[in-house]
Design goal:
This protein has about 300 residues and is of the alpha+beta class. Helices cover about 30% and strands about 25% of the residues. This is N-acetyltransferase domain-containing protein.
Length: about 300
């Protein structure tokens, strides 16, 4: 949400009223809603924005840790938010899912389903823990356990489009309902490469791993996609590439932290990211000032986008 917040700050000033919801400049289905207290505290920001492959989920950022909010506080704000969201949309079918800290997602989904009669999809689309690494916590690479073939870790170029597209397609196969056909994967690859958001590991002329960094602000960057070619799993390529990307973002670009989400119960991914220096994984104590558990819930009968 940090990049969205920075965009929001460029909008005209918002009027203040008791926990009001103020829309940004009216663009069809591409806007933010702010829940603001009468004291001027921004309590929640909800984004309804679009990407090159369709609409994004409704993302909700919280102004303070959810642990400091009561269930009634959250539910009241989400009820207010959903009513204003419905008024701002071209169609309620645009809201195909919501992604936020777990308690906020449940409150929003209940309020939205009650308001619109779109039932909540029974199985969550995504349930993850939020983690971060800084220049101080980034760990050095450990010696390989076996001799490695020649490889390179680098930013992707247009010549890598086919390999990146293959990995985008592979990644989407595990992201039901946000699957891509080959044409969609190629379009995503082209967008990632043209915007400098794709990093690859190449082994023997084959693109074996992809890391995408699609949300960056002045001080922070978020890794949103990590995928390895099925024939190269378990060889540590993702860990090497993630570390290289973090090294570049933290030391060369001066980011204060690199963030990512790790699906709950994905122990191999947790081991890999913990080995890079990401905090709060594998039972490690988490930052009490962060909302560490995030949940995406979908709605039946809506028009799926892609993220």
């Amino acid at each position: 949400m940090l990049p969205l917040i920075q965009k929001l700050q460029t909008r005209p000033s918002f009027a203040t009223s008791p926990f009001s919801v103020t829309p940004s400049a009216p663009v069809v289905d591409d806007f933010w809603l702010v829940v603001q207290s009468n004291a001027g505290e921004v309590e929640f920001v909800a984004s309804c924005t679009n990407g090159p492959l369709g609409g994004y989920p409704i993302f909700i950022w919280c102004g303070r840790p959810v642990s400091t909010m009561s269930p009634a506080f959250i539910q009241q704000r989400m009820s207010l938010l959903t009513h204003h969201l419905l008024k701002s949309l071209s169609s309620p079918k645009r809201v195909f899912s919501v992604f936020a800290p777990t308690a906020v997602t449940h409150a929003f989904a209940t309020a939205w389903s009650t308001l619109t009669n779109f039932e909540i999809v029974e199985s969550p689309y995504y349930h993850a823990t939020f983690s971060s690494v800084t220049a101080k916590t980034l760990l050095p690479a450990s010696p390989p356990k076996f001799e490695l073939p020649q490889y390179s870790l680098r930013q992707a170029t247009p010549a890598d489009e086919a390999g990146v597209a293959d990995l985008c397609y592979t990644f989407a196969l595990t992201g039901d309902p946000f699957v891509l056909d080959q044409a969609g994967a190629q379009k995503e690859a082209r967008c990632l490469i043209s915007q400098g958001q794709a990093y690859v590991c190449e082994v023997g002329g084959v693109i074996v791993c992809l890391v995408a960094v699609t949300r960056s602000s002045t001080n922070h960057a978020t890794i949103t996609k990590v995928v390895t070619h099925p024939g190269f799993l378990g060889q540590g390529w993702a860990k090497r590439l993630v570390r290289e990307v973090c090294l570049r973002l933290l030391h060369k670009e001066g980011k204060k932290s690199v963030l990512l989400y790790v699906a709950l119960n994905n122990r191999p991914a947790e081991y890999a990211y913990k080995g890079v220096g990401f905090a709060g994984l594998l039972g490690e104590a988490q930052d009490p000032n962060m909302d560490n558990e995030w949940l995406e819930l979908g709605f039946e009968g809506t028009d799926n986008g892609h993220w």
